[in-house]
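Table S2 (continued). Query chain:
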Amino acid sequence: MTYKSIVVTKRGGLDALAIVENVLRPPAPGEARVRVLAAPVCQDDVAARVGNRPVLPKVPFVPGYSILGVVDALGEGAGGVAVGDRVAALTQVGGHAEFIYLPAGQLMPVPPGLDPAEAVVLILNYLVAYQVLHRVAQVRPGDKALLIGASGGVGTAFLQLGRLAELKMYGLASQSKHAALADLGAALIDYRSQDFVEVLRQAEPGGLDFVFNGMGEEYFRRGLAVLRRGGMLVHYGGPQSMGRLALLVGRIILTNLLPNGKTIKGYGTHRLGVELFKEDWTVLFSLLEAGSIRPVIAAKYPLLEAVEANRLLESGQVTGHLVLLAPELL
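Corresponding output:
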């Protein structure tokens, strides 16, 4: 038997993506074979293909940072899950395929009643937002925050989770996306036609408690300018190279040494470990089950139509999440 996967054959554009057929092998000891039901397409997938990250997977590789699927087979000694269980995992690579092989200990059980398209975007995008809010910033009701990059998958997750945390939120997004974001509880600022520093100094003369930056380091200076003394900027966007990473670390250290009472913290998805991932995914699944969060799904594509999903993502016209789905879910 065989299965198909999307493979990045070289660094570059959409022409670097190809569909490849693979042998469906038995799982190794401790391993689970998972039939993929849903996998998002995110900016990290594009960055890995193009080459805009300090550490990159070796070409060729299968992109796909997270998955939701069904356990299809288990290798010897693989515990914690059973064949037929619905599970999810943070994979970094490998998710854009009909099947994926993962250590059984990495798998997170998923409540059976959840929509796979909605549940799968909790695994990365909502996890980032939740951990930045509650594990890094440790926000409290009434805190005032600016979200730089409000319209993407992580941005819309921040808006929903920030509203649940009773924050007063401002979000940067182009005017064309304001209508789609209007119900998510933030005051929106068009970064193309408005100077957000001036807007926020008038709206919040005492300054903000937090700035959450998912864009480039070029926002640091203006982000710090709208913070109150004692405020914090949390940067969660991935640097594009090892050199940019070194500059980022240096900028964080220098800013935190300055006597202005403002700090920068960096967040990386894989710093906190799988056990904390599972703890936070449990909370997020419960919020989705209760209807307290509702992911904004911009578009759904068949699992092997990743090229079209990447094309849309790279157009800059997406509000929310893009998800690849198995045929029976479309």
